[in-house]
Amino acid sequence: MKRPRPPTWLERQRYLLDFTLSSLGRRKGKNLALAALYTLVVFALASVLLYTQALRSEAMRILEGAPDLVVQRVVAGRHDLIPGDRVERLSKIRGVQEARGRLWGYYYDASARANLTFLVPDRFWGKPGEVVIGEGVARTRLAVPGEPFPVLAADGEVVVLKVRETIPSFSELVSSDLVLLSEPDFRRLFGIPPGLFTDIALTVPNGKEVSTVAAKIRGQMPDTRPITRAEITRTYEAILDWRSGLVVLVLAAALLSFGIVAWDKASGLSADERREIGVLKAIGWDTSEVLAMKVWEGAVISLSAFLAGLLLAYFHVFVTPAPLLAPVLKGWSTIYPEFRLTPVLNPFIVSTLFLLTVVPYTVATVVPAWRAATTDPDEVMRS
Amino acid sequence: MRKSDRFLLFLALMLALLEVARLHALHRGRDRAEEVLAMTAMARRLGLTDLSLFTDARYARHPSQADRFAPFQDHPTSLEHFPSGSLVPPPAP
Amino acid sequence: MIRLQDVRRVFHQGRPDELVAVDDVTLDIADARITVLRGPSGSGKTSLLALVGCMARPTSGRIHVGDREVTSLPEHFLTEVRRLTFGFVFQQFHLVRGLTALENVMLPAYPLGGSRKALVARAQALLDRFGVGARAHARADWLSGGEAQRVAIARALVNDPRVVVADEPTAHLDSKLSAGFMDLVAALRDEGRTVVMASHDAIVYDSPLVDHVVSMRDGRIVRGEP
Ligand SMILES: Nc1ncnc2c1ncn2[C@@H]1O[C@H](COP(=O)(O)OP(=O)(O)OP(=O)(O)O)[C@@H](O)[C@H]1O
Ligand SMILES: [Mg+2]
Questions:
Q1: Total Cβ atoms within 10 A of residue C12
Q2: Residue C226 lies in a domain
Q3: Residue A289's closest chain C neighbor by CA?
Q4: Which chain C residues touch A18 with a CB distance below 8 Å?
Q5: Residue C87 in this model has a pLDDT that exceeds 60
Q6: What is the pLDDT at residue A329?
Q7: Lowest mean pLDDT segment, chosen from A30-44, A103-117, A240-254, C173-187
Q8: Mean predicted confidence (pLDDT) in B55-80
Q9: What is the CATH number of the domain that holds C34?
Q10: Confidence at A63, pLDDT banded by 50, 70, 90
């Protein structure tokens, strides 16, 4: 018996792939539709994953600048203004480098139907009577520097401020809805008497001391609630998880129905297919070759869909402003930041998606063929 | 061209595009690093605690700072007429 | 030479519906000869052919292909013997539908790797030889019965096997095509190939081209007319 040179792995796989492609080509329309549907599912899933990952990492980096500790006064379970003398007391606690009373609040602008955030910076660089506004505010109110900026004060009077400048738009992710103004204007607008603040921000240089300081504050001022930066970032993580979870939930229905279609398509081995495997075995294919061919059959569709879906999602999320996802985040807000995220394409996301998409489909293709592939080849000879 | 080669070429093309995306991510990351630093600095200067992502409900801009009394916000599944309100989970204990 | 010694093939052994399809067959199949198994339906021709072609293992007994004992070989090696030594022509031809005639002919060589160009040339040459070269790119399911059979023969030969096994090869052919088939088979023998066929078609077993006729009944070989 002559024994030819053993084939290289690649040579053999290319032949098996040739067969698979010819075989898939027989129901070209159906298989293309399946691949397209599959691509769409991967695209949706990948978009959500990429978007939330990027947003999360961006938020984490930005929030490194947030105060180490924020102290709120709570009256009967409600957030209340905090007296200025607490600033003095808090700054004396060991570990606290600086305490500063903050003034901020929300203002519902009925004409623009938007919630604006009014905030007094530590050292406001404008003159009293002037405001510095975020790009989003500028957009919704059509306000430009030099124009008047009328605001309805707490006493019902309209106070006309003047737009000094807008905050550079690259920072919209944090500044879109901001209206920065001077302390006297803020107190006048909202009727907050001098000596009271919204809350107090503390600087605690040593990160390890933050929780001790917080505990100390709770002991010394039982009517306050200290919020650490870790709690803030944790809230964010949770929000983004929750949010992506919600989208995934919505997608789950689509995912499930696709799963059923795919399973049915991949696993329902018809009599024809079973006979075909028998023929292949009878003319000299080994069980392992039949299975390898089936792996290719699953991989051709799922790998193509995976790569195409992932690339489309990357393009959607990081090259365009994610038009299909933004509404989920946006809710009903009329002020919405226009931002670009720092792209994240790490091996974790890629491999997660791969495991979620390529592996199950391929398995669903191979497993049902297993029985047919292991039966004796003489089965086909029975007529 | 042989069918398998056509497909392998297609795969190679997709992988090349993926590599382009990776490089794009790297490049953009470097480009944006400065802007992110500036935003961090702005957050520090202004004492910002939240992103301006959710501005539909008045308490939603600052989910980490929100008043506890805001109606229905304590539980994400509670009735809520602002979409993002329903997405903010209960404050961590 | 293929030798079968006391070969039995039992289906559903130990069950009430136990069936002895091949019963104590001892047979030598000579090289470069045409051997025909004849017998009524159900006499075990196909089952014996499957054993000869290493498609199945006998329940008991031994089979030698050349000087190699194949009954005890693990599946993987049996497959290798099958694909290098045997070419098969099935009763229903069993071409893979949707693939072209050319692709069908190439199929048995896929697991062997090697240059595709050479393989295409080889397959095309075989199709040409059997007069269906022009149909190389037609889909298998569009071929007529006679064409399909020629493609099936070409497929059986693509790995250049020493033995060609055919089960009821003329069942779907008219007399003229059947006679033509016998000429093809004779040509294969004249190239030095061994041909083993199962048939209850007189055109086959009464053909002067056949070297050896083995009659079967109830799984056994019978002397003289069955
Ligand atoms: N896989 C199997 N399982 C159970 N019984 C089988 C199997 N294969 C064949 N048989 C039985 O074995 C006996 C011999 O069958 P075989 O197909 O070898 O006969 P044959 O001579 O080829 O008949 P025909 O001329 O109709 O093709 C028949 O009774 C058949 O039903
Ligand atoms: Mg038969």
A1: 9
A2: no
A3: C111
A4: 110, 116
A5: yes
A6: 66
A7: A240-254
A8: 52
A9: 3.40.50.300
A10: confident
| Residue matched to tokens 């909202």 | A190
Does the residue C113 lie in any domain?
yes
pLDDT of amino acid C158: 94
Distance (angstroms) between ligand 1 centre and the Cα of C21 equals 6
Q: CA-CA distance, A344 to C192, in Å (whole number)? A: 67
Q: Which residues 116-155 in chain A show a CB within 8 A of chain B? A: 117, 119, 121-122, 134, 136
Spell out which residues have Cβ within 5 A of ligand 2, the ion.
C 46
Q: Which domain does C127 fall in, by range?
A: 2-221
Looking at the CA of residue C40, tell me the nearest atom of ligand 1: 25
Nearest residue of A to residue B66 by CA position? A79
Number of domains in chain C: 1
Give the pLDDT band (50/70/90) at residue A261.
Answer: low
| pLDDT at residue A336, as a whole number | 73
Mean pLDDT taken over chain C:
91
Instruction: Examine residue C211 and state whether it is found in any structural domain, yes or no.
Output: yes
pLDDT tens profile C121-157: 999 999 999 999 999 999 999 999 889 999 999 999 9
**Inter-chain residue contact A16 with C110, CB threshold 8 Å:** yes
Q: Mean pLDDT check: name the lowest of A92-101, A138-147, A181-190, C16-25.
A: A138-147
**Residue in chain B nearest A350 by alpha carbon:** B18
Give the helix/strand (H/E) hosting A281. helix A271-282
The two tokens of residue A147 are 């124009």
CB A248 within 8 A of CB A45: yes
HSE value, Cβ hemisphere, 13 Å, CA-based, for C226: 19
Smallest CA separation from ligand 1 atom 4, residue: C11
* A167, A132 contact by CB (below 8 A): yes
In a domain, C213, yes or no: yes
Q: Count Cβ atoms within 10 A of the Cβ of residue A165 and give its class: 0-12 exposed, 13-18 middle, 19 or more buried.
A: middle
Helix (H) or strand (E) holding C6: strand C2-11
A236 interfaces chain B, CB cutoff of 8 Å:
yes
Indicate if ipTM > 0.95.
Answer: no
C42 lines ligand 1 (CB under 6 A): yes
- Measured between CA atoms, how close is A1 to chain B, in angstroms? 31
